[in-house]
Amino acid sequence: GESVGLHLPTLSVQEGDNSIINCAYSNSASDYFIWYKQESGKGPQFIIDIRSNMDKRQGQRVTVLLNKTVKHLSLQIAATQPGDSAVYFCAENPSGAGSYQLTFGKGTKLSVIP
Amino acid sequence: GAVVSQHPSWVICKSGTSVKIECRSLDFQATTMFWYRQFPKQSLMLMATSNEGSKATYEQGVEKDKFLINHASLTLSTLTVTSAHPEDSSFYICSARDILVRETQYFGPGTRLLVL
Fold it and tell me: What is the dihedral of CA B92, B33, A109, A90, to 10 degrees?
């Protein structure tokens, strides 16, 4: 069932503005990171990934920034659209080349105001 | 590419019955599949890692006799919730790792289970 008191951080953005979603990761040994988008009632959808030997990677309308010094990851969405409304999760691969398991962050809910 | 399907998408069952959920990678081979559980407004919780041709590895606190996992081929893994109870009601999601793409996991659409 649902845990009492748990609330997803929410980011509300005007349509057409840029969105920045932040994530702090825990393991300094993680070498691979992914951003996923999850719409209500659906499975997570891959957005973009980045390896630890990079600090920036761009996709279509999205950019991921990695700051290993402070263990921080961010997802920037340009010209945010109503279809971008969803929960966004960052995930890290904490064990390097071993098990390929991912550890997920708590998620941020993005609400786009038309 | 990289499509993962799950079946059924939702299921309602009586307490005490067993429910099987299938996870298939449709256009790639997956030596490893993962099973997650997600409660409302929460993140994904890894239940187990399923490796083709070998026993699944369960996370701490997940009962392996309760959640049976079989990964019989490179494109199919199944999760069976045995003797389901209302507290097992949840959103179950599988993911598959492409042999060729290393760490990236592609997720299925999820299965919503409601146990009455």
Answer: 150
